[in-house]
Backbone:
């Protein structure tokens, strides 16, 4: 089964948008994901409706952040995407006649509900500024590594 990467993709786009701190077109944002601008517009529509981003049409227009990253949680973004299914597992039959299969389904229901609740709680505790800070640290480390590789070796 193919995994749903909308959450990961839109977080990638949001962080690029915040990093540039200026209006960016769907065409420009699409380059980051190597996708079509229509895909960006579809994903961003839910974020616009949720008040996380703003779009302006015309020359000089594009997408901008409506809120600071500190005010946006992973859960906010997840909800703005329409709360896509978190787990790909399902049942062999939705309404089985077999009592064993009914017990299996009930057990899975309970486990998935508990796991989803914990995951959404975690999503609520992580804001996008946390992810941006992790990116900044990784960039700093990467640049330091690149600089050390480019220095001439002393003999």
Residues:
């Amino acid at each position: 089964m193919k995994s749903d990467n909308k959450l990961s993709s839109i977080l990638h786009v949001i962080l690029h948008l915040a990093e540039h701190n200026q209006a960016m077109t769907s065409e420009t944002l699409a380059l980051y994901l190597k996708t079509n601008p229509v895909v960006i517009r579809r994903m961003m529509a839910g974020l616009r409706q949720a008040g996380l981003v703003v779009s302006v049409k015309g020359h000089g227009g594009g997408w901008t952040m409506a809120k600071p990253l500190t005010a946006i949680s992973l859960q906010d973004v997840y909800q703005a995407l329409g709360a896509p299914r978190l787990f790909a597992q399902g049942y062999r039959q939705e309404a089985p006649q077999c009592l064993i299969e009914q017990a299996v389904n009930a057990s899975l229901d309970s486990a998935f509900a508990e796991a989803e609740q914990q995951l959404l709680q975690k999503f609520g505790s992580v804001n996008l500024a946390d992810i941006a800070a992790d990116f900044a640290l990784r960039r700093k480390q990467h640049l330091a590594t690149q600089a050390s590789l480019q220095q001439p070796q002393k003999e």
Remarks:
- The mean pLDDT is 91.
- The radius of gyration is 21 Å.
- Residues 50 and 79 are 8 Å apart (CA to CA).
